[in-house]
TrEMBL record:
CDD domains: cupin_pirin_C (cd02247), cupin_pirin_N (cd02909)
Protein name: Pirin family protein
Ranges annotated as biased composition (Basic residues): 315-324
Residue intervals of the Pirin C-terminal domain: 194-292
Source organism of this protein record: Micromonospora zhanjiangensis
C-alpha cells in the first residue's frame, strides 16, 4: 500500500502519555487519508502521541466499504525500502503483484507479508470479480539495521494458527501468543493477533511485560483497560503488563492486538520509505524515478506512481516518541 502524502501525517489529541515503565493507556483516534482515487483509509500510526508500537510503524484500517459498481482499491506500482508490509483482510479480495514476479490474490483469513529489504515495488488492486465489501488492515514493520539491506522477499500464508477460549477466538498473525507461534517471518520480537468475539463476551490474554502493546478496533464495540473502543481507534497500552482482558459489547467485535519490544532506532519515514537518514531517502527516491533498484511489476501494465518532490527542509530521524 502506498502513502499518497509525502510524509505520513500525525494526528493530534489532548490525551497525556502514560508514564514510561508503568501500565497506562492512550486512546489514539484515526484520521481519514485518501488512498489513490477510490479508497479512503483511517491512519492510526504514526500518530503525534505515539509513533510506534514495537517495530509496528504504520497502521491503516480500511472499510468496511461497499465497492459494488466501484473500482475498489486501485494502488499502482510503487516502491518500498526498510520495511515489511503486512496485509490482513476481514472481507473482500486484493490482488498483490510485485517486482519479484509474485501475483497473489489475498482473501479473508490469509496473510500477505512482503519484506522490502533494500528495495521492492508492488501494486495492490481489487480484482474485477471482487466481493461487494472490502474491509481490512495494512501495517508496516520497520526492519532493524541488520535486515535493512537484505534482498526483498514475499510470503503468502493461506492459513494462520489460533485457538478459541470461550467467547474469544484468536488468530496469531505474527509472532507468538500463549504458546502459539505464527509462521510469518519477523526480524525483531513482535506480535500481531486478531481477537474476535463473535457474540460479544470477554476473554483474557497473557502478555509479555517487556513488550509494549496496542489494541486496534475493527468492528463492533469493545472495552479494553476500562476504555471503550469504537471501530477505527487504537488504544496504546504501554509496557509492564502480564495480562489483558478484552470485552465485546456487541456481536462481531473484532480487535487486533499489536505488540513488540520497544524499537529504539530513530527512523526517517517519508512517502513509502523507512530509512535512517535524509541521504538514504533521497537516494531511494532518485533510484525509483530513474528506474533503478526496485525492478518492474511485470504483470501490471498500469502507470507507476511517481514520487513526490522532496521537501525544502532536511529530513531528520525521529525516535519512537517522535523526538528528533
Amino acid at each position: 500500500m502506498s502513502v499518497t502524502e509525502p510524509m505520513p501525517a500525525d494526528t493530534r489529541t489532548p490525551t497525556d502519555e502514560p508514564t514510561p515503565g508503568e501500565p497506562g493507556s492512550v486512546l489514539l483516534p484515526g484520521h481519514d487519508v485518501p488512498l489513490g482515487r477510490y479508497t479512503t483509509v483511517r491512519r492510526l500510526l504514526p500518530h503525534r502521541r505515539r509513533r510506534m508500537i514495537g517495530a509496528w510503524c504504520f497502521v491503516d484500517h480500511f472499510g468496511p466499504d461497499d465497492v459494488t459498481g466501484r473500482p475498489g482499491m486501485q494502488v499502482p506500482p510503487h516502491p518500498h525500502i526498510g520495511l515489511q508490509t503486512v496485509t490482513w483482510l476481514v472481507e473482500g479480495t486484493i490482488r498483490h503483484r510485485d517486482s519479484l514476479g509474485n501475483d497473489q490474490l489475498i482473501r479473508p483469513g490469509q496473510l500477505n507479508l512482503m519484506t522490502s529489504g533494500r528495495g521492492i515495488a508492488h501494486s495492490e488492486q481489487s480484482p474485477p470479480d471482487r466481493p461487494a465489501v472490502m474491509h481490512g488492515l495494512q501495517l508496516w514493520v520497520a526492519l532493524p539495521d541488520d535486515a535493512r539491506a537484505d534482498p526483498p522477499a514475499f510470503d503468502h500464508h493461506p492459513t494462520v494458527p489460533g485457538w478459541r477460549d470461550g467467547d474469544l477466538a484468536v488468530a496469531v498473525l505474527v509472532g507468538e501468543l500463549a504458546g502459539v507461534r505464527a509462521p510469518a517471518r519477523a526480524y525483531s520480537p513482535l506480535l500481531g493477533a486478531q481477537l474476535h468475539l463473535p457474540t460479544g463476551g470477554a476473554g483474557r490474554l497473557p502478555l509479555r511485560p517487556d513488550f509494549e502493546y496496542g489494541v486496534l478496533a475493527m468492528s463492533g464495540r469493545a472495552e479494553v483497560d476500562g476504555v471503550e473502543l469504537a471501530p477505527g481507534t487504537l488504544l496504546y497500552l504501554g509496557t509492564d503488563r502480564t495480562e489483558l482482558t478484552v470485552s465485546g459489547a456487541a456481536p462481531d467485535t473484532r480487535l487486533v492486538l499489536l505488540g513488540g519490544e520497544p524499537f529504539e532506532s530513530p527512523l526517517v519515514m517519508w512517502w513509502n520509505f523507512v530509512g535512517r537518514s535524509h541521504e538514504e531517502i533521497v537516494e531511494a527516491r532518485e533510484d525509483w524515478m530513474a528506474g533503478r533498484r526496485f525492478g518492474t511489476v511485470a504483470a501490471d501494465d498500469s502507470a507507476s506512481l511517481p514520487a513526490p518532490d522532496m521537501p525544502g527542509v532536511r529530513l531528520k530521524p525521529r525516535d519512537r516518541h517522535g523526538r528528533f
